[in-house]
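Can't attach files on this board, so I'm pasting raw text. These are the components:
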Amino acid sequence: MSILFAFLVGGVLCLIGQLIMDLTPYNISTGHILVGYVTTGAIVSAFGLYQPLIDFGGTGATIPLTGFGHGLTQGVLEAIGTEGFLGIFSGGIAANAGGIAAAVVFGYVMAVVFNPQG
Amino acid sequence: MSQLKKIGERTLKFSIPPVILDARSIVGPKEGEGPLGDTFDRVIDDMYFGEDSWEKAERKLIEEVIKMMLEKNNLAPKDVDFLFSGDLLNQTITSNFAASTLGIPYLGLYGACSTMLEGLVLASMVIDGGFAAKVTAATSSHYCTAERQFRFPTEQGVQKPMTSQRTVTGAAAFLLGNEGKGPHITHATVGKVIDGGIKDAANLGAAMAPAAVDTIVTHLQDTGRSVKDYDLIVTGDLGYVGHSISLDLASEKGFNISGVFNDCGILIYNPDQDTHSGGSGCACSGVVVAGHLLDTLRKGKYKRILVVGTGALLSSTSIQQGETIPGIGHGLVIEAADPQ
Amino acid sequence: MTDSNNSHEAQGKKLKSQVKQSQQQYDQQEYQTIVKKHAPKKPLLKNCASAFFVGGIITAIAQVFFNLFSNAGLLERDANTVVVILMIFSGAFLTGIGVYDRIVKFGGAGAIVPITGFANSIVAPAMEFKREGFIFGVASKMFSIAGPVLVYGFITSIIVGLVAFTFM
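---
Top answer:
Structure tokens for the assembled complex are below.
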């Protein structure tokens, strides 16, 4: 059942992205979408509105980039509780260190190993 | 003072029409699968062309096509007086390298996708002016080098808009002479840069259409000819979108060209090859004229055609800074060899 | 006398150039409407359906792994991290073997929005610019899209943190 909910939530989040790309008169590129999703996720999460989506849709909400923004905000907010002011700067990255490090390492390794095929 | 060979506003009438002695083309795999596949001299099956970068592959394309043409005509590079060449890469680096390998006196050009026609116009002027007996005009483009320079890395996931076009992978070379047999160039109309205010780099057909139509209309006015005098009026790489816009613009100006109007970017691919609006790039007009169109002229199916090489004058910087994309179109009249 | 004449002339010239400029602007606007008329229609319904489907499938696969790891006894937070790492790996690998760009071509935002798309945006430019060397090619180009994502992600979360810290 959780898989179906993940499918639905993930699908809808992507559908919104497609609508933004297709219905706006501007040329929305991959970069715009990714930056927009991270920022939106971080802001929505600040109001406590993203957690319910995760409770319902699981990875359907964490895997889209809004989930990364949510992770950053929650990391910061939690760290403020434990570390105080310093937590504002360390919390976000600390909470997502695994993903960020994986992106750098796998990104680098794949780019070195493979060549573009055109 | 001798009489000017310019007629009307900006059309050149050659007194000794330069002869197209030979023209050769090499294309990539996708172009080889297209409807004109067997009109090209060579189809490569590997986008790298045996090299380790796409830039080197493009350089090899243009070097090979010129070498092939010279060999078929038993000429050495020193037999050619001048080489007019250009491409899409920054500072026309591909042509510069090719010219350094070949050692032919070289004039480098940048006219974006109109480079092939710009080269042919200038080569014709040099020959008619009596400065040379044999001149080569060449150009190249490569899908991957162009994508990388102007758009996105090739492996990056992007959904291209329906107005986008695919840069033709290939190279074309023409050998013009002041005497000999073959189709010859009688007129040329030099294009004006026209800015239609288009800012969308994924809709270059629309950016170039006003310039193409302007050149066609001016050409007809300068020469006093009508559309009926041509068996074909063909643009370089407007694609489906630019083509239909041009038809509209021309009829707005009172010229109904729909019966004879076509576009190399439409001709080169099948509609089901998923190239959206069609082909583009320097090589697009080059390989279609060198292969299909000259064949048709030689066979006598066409007597006289007007080729308008279209170019979208953008740079990756101007696009990122949100500037408009001006367009240009150079016209060239090619007539079939006289029957005698 | 001559002064006023000159200024008149200058004004006239200025006016003329203004008229010319607005004429050009008008022409360009006119042209935009022609261009719009000829713009091919986007297959919106098909695009949306495939974005929903592809995005759904990617996140559903992630959920399968998440369930697997949770059942194996991982805490929710750790299971999440492992799934994220796994998805990044898959996105990067599929880009390397030249498959991911085709998934995006079909699925559009469905394959851009998930974190696999983020991985694609790292590997694609890095791989493409390998010829420029391992520092200024691979390593620097890796962040051509990922960089902005991190910058705006960090900044937004830090602003949220500052606000929260000040008012709570």
